Amino acid sequence: AGKRGIGAVLGLAVSILVISLYIIPQIIQGQDPLTVCLIGSFIILLTSTYLAHGISVKTTIAVFATGISLLFAAWISSYFVGLLDIFGLGSEEIYNLQMGYSINPKGLLLGSILIGTLGALNDITTTQAITMFTLVRESASRRTKQKMLDLFEKGMDIGKEHIASLINTLVLAYAGSSLAVFIYLELNPAKLPWWVILNNESTIEEIVRSLAGSTALILAVPLTTLLATWVALKRVKKS
């Protein structure tokens, strides 16, 4: 991928540094995990996106749309967690942390949802922004009359396919990281009824992760498409 590939690797390095040098130490010191992860996610978003894709209007639109969608993911995950009375104690590691550190398990769950969603959000917004700029440029080169609604609908046709594939990717990523939980639920050694299993912290946490991430992805596509179409048309008219 040339310079873009080098930029992507540098962005990955920055992401790891932000997580290891900022997010984790701040959480260990007792700071609110959700706030820390939100700040860290925005730092990762700004640095990694511009390093990988360069400084441009398209990249800025993608960053803005990702930021809005990330805030929405924080809100919707907080809503689900509060609605379902989840305490964030769905794993043995969390219980062990509670013994020696004052870490908020619910905030840690919410923060992990944000970080897990960020990559997929960034993917879909950058791709969608570039797609819309390309569509507008192609329409202008053919000297065809460009209507914002028509271009938006074309962009959404592409975006819908992207949503479907990325939601599947996101859910599979969560499922893969919790494979032991799925095996345990399948074996069900205690012979618990399905409604008890569904109300287990480990099970419901994975459901919330998938719901929050998928909802944010669904929002990101029309938001990015609308912004990119509007800005691209304005730039074409000025030129």
Summed up, what is this model?
This protein is mainly alpha-helical.
Topology:
Elements: H1 2-28, H2 33-53, H3 57-83, H4 92-100, H5 105-141, H6 148-177, H7 179-187, H8 194-198, H9 201-238
Notes on the structure:
This protein is mainly alpha-helical and 239 residues long. Helix content is 85%, strand content 0%. It has 9 helices and no strands. It has helices at residues 2-28, 33-53, 57-83, 92-100, 105-141, 148-177, 179-187, 194-198, 201-238. Helix 3 packs antiparallel against helix 5, helix 3 runs antiparallel to helix 9 and helix 6 packs antiparallel against helix 9 (201-238). It starts with a helix and ends with a helix.
Based on the model shown, name its key terms:
239 residues; mainly alpha; 0% strand; globular
Cα-atom radius of gyration: 20 Å
Quaternary structure of the protein: single chain
Q: What is the straight-line distance between the termini?
A: 30 Å
* Overall pLDDT metric: 83
Shape: globular
User: SSE order in H/E notation?
Assistant: HHHHHHHHH
Low-confidence stretches: none
Tally of alpha and pi helices: 9
The overall strand count is 0
DSSP strand (E) fraction?
under 5%
SS content category = mainly alpha
Reported for the largest beta sheet, the result is: none
Helix content: over 70%
